[in-house]
């Protein structure tokens, strides 16, 4: 009889363990997160500072490869407006590889990207990597920080 109960307890343990693993292993729907990422990038290149203000909060910290100074929200808004004022245009933006890690209401997005720009009639292109932090707050994803490698 004792042996039978031991088997029942062990079987129950495995069922609970496997159910828990399956629950945590389920893929999250990253479409809204990746759409927010796309909106931030597109808004920056378009000089859309109103959208950036909503998605890039005041406490933002940005580290860019090759830049000694770290940036904040005001710098992000200013550089976006400057790029747009110079006639800068985004011609192509691709993320060939993206990995997402979720930690509660925080997501870390690791990506490689390719960008093609036109400024004053001159085209340029580059590629690099970016690590972005997104936080789910007030019913939407916000982007309070990122780090880009120096472009190749």
Describe the structure.
It is a single chain. Helices cover 39% and strands 38% of the residues. The chain is an alpha+beta fold. It has a single domain, classed as Nuclear Transport Factor 2, Chain: A. A 5-stranded mixed β-sheet has the order 1-5-4-3-2. Helix 2 crosses helix 4. The chain is globular and about 45 Å long. It starts with a helix and ends with a strand.
CATH topology: Nuclear Transport Factor 2, Chain: A
Helical residue percent? Answer: 25-40%
* Poorly predicted spans: 8-26
As a whole number of angstroms, the C-alpha radius of gyration is 22 Å
Q: Shape from CA axes?
A: globular
| SS-based class | alpha+beta
Largest sheet properties: 5 strands, mixed
Distance between the termini: 70 Å
**Beta strand %:** 35-45%
Order of strands side by side in the largest beta sheet?
A: 1-5-4-3-2
Number of distinct helices: 4
Question: Secondary-structure element order, as H and E?
Answer: HHHEHEEEE
Second rung of CATH, namely the architecture: Roll
What's the total number of strands? 5
The total domain count is 1
Q: What is the CATH class designation? A: Alpha Beta
Mean pLDDT: 88
Task: Give a quick precis of the structure.
The protein is of the alpha+beta class and 152 residues long. Helix content is 39%, strand content 38%.
